[in-house]
Amino acid sequence: MAAPRVPWIDRAVVAIGLASLFSDVGHEMATAAMPALLASFGASSAVLGWIEGLSDAVSSFAKLVSGLYSDRLARRKPLAVVGYFLTAAGMASFAFATQSWHVLVGRVAGWLGRGARSPVRNVLLTEATTPETYGRAFGFERSMDSAGAIVGPLVALLLVATAGVRATFLLTVVPGLIAALLIVFLVKEKPHAPRPKASLLGGFSRLPPRFRRFLLGVGLAGLGDFSNTLLILWATQAWTPRFGLERAATLAVGFYVGYNVVYTLSCSVCGMLADRFDKRYVLAGGYALAVFPAAALLVPGDSFVKFAIVFGASGAYMGAWETVESSTAASYLPAEVRGTGFGILATVNGLGDLLSSVLVGSLWAVSPTSAMLYVIVMSLGGAAVLALTPAEA
């Protein structure tokens, strides 16, 4: 007799997915236009790398604190709501930027909110589904998030052409507020026993050994996971001599939309694979995929085919990374340290983003070959750690 199908989607899962969709529409509208704004200030890839890296560092700290603090609370949901509001405000502040450091302040504020909400959102999603369907639930949430990254840049292109850059940044607040309201009204939090004396050291000591080994592989691969806004900047810079800054920036955003189309499909496919096969090997394969865009960037020239490979392969591997990392963590973490575990996972990723964005952005300014070889080594190293970690009963 065939095993019964396990339902994996309900109102809470849909609401969390829609919140990710709308929030991502807002901050991707800002992200798509941000490289062109920085280019108008004369900022280099190193400056963008520092903006992204520092923002990710602040986000990582917020994720760690939020995850730990959420285990102390009887109700976690308000932390997520505040985080969605803060992200919306940070992205809208780009409308008033006249220098690079203004963009840094807005990005940091937005990513502070993003960090505060992420572990709580993952806990809420974990509690809304079952261990047998974590992959599909997280794949759905990531697909909705990446669908927002398709819609956001397209909306940005339309608004920039009709209303201007400043108005576009201001309007990013609308989808951000919708995301917060979806969590407020449609997600019912399940009760859990708060741990008012929870500490970081105590929480880390309670994490399963398998989860700690998993963090090692995640951290190593994360050291090569630079921000995709660098891809937009590099494409813009490569095409500016041929097309001019405005058209080059528009083309780069168009390719970024293609990245997110691939990413959306990858999230769903990888979520299903993670429920069917050993998550370690699915994730290791995702890490290894990062070799392809890095190798393509080493090819001379500014052809559309080259950048199609870069953006497409990047979307494919990021769908695997984000979906399977979260669903793997959900399967390893006991309920009493779930917030702390997701916070530590997010912090490991964020610190990797900080180092990789700064290092890759700075290395690229000096030697693109060195930058991409570094990415390849880190990605394959993370894949090896995941693949060679023995399974536990």
Automatic annotation (TrEMBL):
Keyword annotations from UniProtKB, A to Z: Membrane, Transmembrane, Transmembrane helix
Gene3D superfamilies per the UniProt record, alphabetical: MFS general substrate transporter like domains
Residues covered by the Major facilitator superfamily (MFS) profile domain: 12-393
Organism: Pendulispora albinea
UniProt-recorded name of the protein: MFS transporter
PANTHER family named among the record's database cross-references: C-METHYLTRANSFERASE, MAJOR FACILITATOR SUPERFAMILY TRANSPORTER
Database matches in CDD domains: MFS_MJ1317_like
Bilayer-crossing regions: 79-97, 169-187, 214-235, 255-274, 281-298, 342-365, 371-391
Biological classification of the source: Bacteria, Pseudomonadati, Myxococcota, Myxococcia, Myxococcales
Lineage top rank: taxon: Bacteria
UniProt xrefs under InterPro entries: MFS, MFS_dom, MFS_trans_sf
